[in-house]
Amino acid sequence: MEISRLFIDGNEAVARAALTSGCKFFAGYPITPATTIFQHMLELLPPNDGICLQGEDEIASIGFCIGASMAGLKAMTATSGPGISLFSEQISFAIAGEIPLVIIDVQRLGPSTGSATRGADSDIQFLRWGNSGGLPVIVLAPIDSTDCYNLTCRAFNLAERYRCPVFLASNKEIGMTREVIDEAALVKVAPLYRTGCGDNFSTEPFQPFAPGTDSRVPPFLPMGGKTLVRQTSSSHGPDGFITTVPEVLERGISRMRDKLLQDRDDLSHYRLDNDPQADILLITYGVTSRAAQNALYRVRDRSFRISLLTLQTLYPVPEKLLREEIAKVSRVIAVEMNLGQYVREIERLSGATEVEFLGKMNGELISPEEIVGVIGS
Fold first, then answer.
1. pTM above the 0.85 mark?
2. Sign of the four-CA dihedral 113, 116, 122, 126
3. CA angle centred on 248, ends 246 and 250, rounded to 5°
């Protein structure tokens, strides 16, 4: 059987996946190393009845996307660390307003504008905690171009299913490294679309933030139609009106929290290279997992009993998975391309098992040799 192969980088894979997922709107602002996503969307969307805009800055760009999503379109934007910082207020709006949105963060070395042409996993904590109120978000972490495609498709479906922003935490090395991938390895995920409210408002006033009887997520009615739809970034009740009633606020905020946390096990994507007799567990994510896999082969040749857990969902934290895998071993080593961000989540779930850490943030990739050095020390 003939296998079709593609020679693409992670950024192009993201754009192709967005189109496959039904994305009809993209707005962005040129920023290294995410700009080529914008360029690919400019080529792909207009011929497919979509819209691609350049905003005057990152704040305007995500605002355009939020408006498009509120009108019923699947929307995506892409940026890097400095843009994520500027997105913060609008991210909070998308969370509070339960507005579906896919945000691609092609990370680079920080802090601030940092080094535009050097990669790092600089924004991991910021993606989780960069909204006012601290409500949970979904953050997916690709390993390579294939993952960029597959996880972007999942990101769109999750955004629609839970009516929330979903992040893809890529980075410069993944986004701009061209590699051959097999089309057969691309997941064929049927696109989801947010649940519409139907005619539920025909006899009763439409309540834009009232969940259905069998769901924690409100049905959707696009703005701009014949029915009045209220949208606000302020604390509100099911009817969309601003309120300060404690009981109403608590119910609404708890629902927005629980709609993700109660499904955290279903949201957990990962790869596990398992040795049933392992006494060492290596935990990583992103491009660093490729070096970790290489290191794994080397140390197994030296009779180390070791497993590798590669996380593809960073948030909500896959607590059950981490606890179960950590409980099987006596040594845990966390590796990430920063000075220690996600390792804090691993440490709080490790119980009495001490977590060793290998991190680097100088613009260079963590090498297999460095990982082997920690394992063998």
1. yes
2. positive
3. 65
